Amino acid sequence: MQGKPENFAIQHPIIERMEAPNMTLNKDKQVVVEDEQIQLIRLKRLTTIGQVLVGILFVALWEILTKFGIIDSYYWSSPSTIVQTTYVSFTEGTLLQDLIYTSGATIIGFAAGTFLGSILGLSFWWSSLYSNIAEPYLIAFNAIPKLALAPVLVIMFGIGFFSKVILAFLMVVIVTAIAAYSGVKAVDKDLEKLLFSLGARRMQVFKKVVVPSAMPWIVSSLKINIALALAGAIVGEFISSRQGVGRMILYAGQVMDIDLVWVGVVVLSVLAIIMYVATVWLEKWLLKGRSVEE
User: Fold this and answer.
1) Is position 116 within any domain?
2) Residue 58 falls within a domain, yes or no?
3) Looking at the domain assignment, is residue 18 inside a domain?
4) Which phi and psi (to 5°) does residue 243 adopt?
């Protein structure tokens, strides 16, 4: 054993596999090292298959339980009825226009809130006095339930599109500012001192160090922000609106059209998933090459 240490891994494959999870045994019981990229692709494929299967199982179980009367179809509707009602709403109703209205208010409020919130949070780096004075007010404003102010905002800005954008904006801007400020506070102070000692200007340090260091903090808030923006737009439509999926759900509830209520719920769920996937793509794009640089 001592004379042939190089054969130890082959003679003890179990120990080798425990130490290196990306190693497997082929049919000849030889250690085979799997590429990490192949493992990630396999994991992604299995995850996608699992998610699709769980979704199909859920929908099928829902349909079966309502068909056999195990759960009341009046309150819970059924997937087949929801699909039929959705088709009618798209072709004969105003579902497409309502969806565009809600999506537009959400996206504009999300983009504006994320951009201005990032600027606000990053601005705290420039002055410790300014950041110390503003921080408690930022936290206090974040604690205010913005949705409770929805009736006031609708009265101030009207029942049109702009009030929904304002609500979505307010739901996002403070969260993003706090995330950006957290990134600013996490900047390496020693690196700043080193750059200043080498003659770097404040704007150079801000662009080359502060913004890149805070970017992961800002990006990490995107997934939360898109959901908050959608909630703000929907609540604004609940308060008062002529269009939007929220208005459609409110109207359907008033006339006791439960199937149409479920159509609105399902459409909003699909919309939220699409926006979430879009923010994941945006996150990858914003952080592209960061792992390589690090």
Assistant:
1) yes
2) yes
3) no
4) -140, 175
**pLDDT per residue as tens digits for the range 4-20:** 444 444 444 444 444 44
Report whether 292 contacts 277 (CB < 8 A): no
Nearest one of 172, 171, 163, 166 to 145, comparing CA atoms: 171
pLDDT band, very low/low/confident/very high, at 27 (cuts 50, 70, 90): low
Domain assignment of residue 48, given as a range:
36-76
Give the pLDDT confidence of 224-244 residue by residue, as tens digits: 899 999 999 999 898 888 888
CATH number at residue 245: 1.10.3720.10
Q: What is the DSSP letter of 149?
A: G
Across the chain, how many H-helices and E-strands are there?
16, 2
Residue 159 φ then ψ, to 5°: -95, 10
**Alpha-carbon span 178 to 4, nearest angstrom:** 59
115 has a pLDDT exceeding 90: yes
The total domain count for the chain is 2
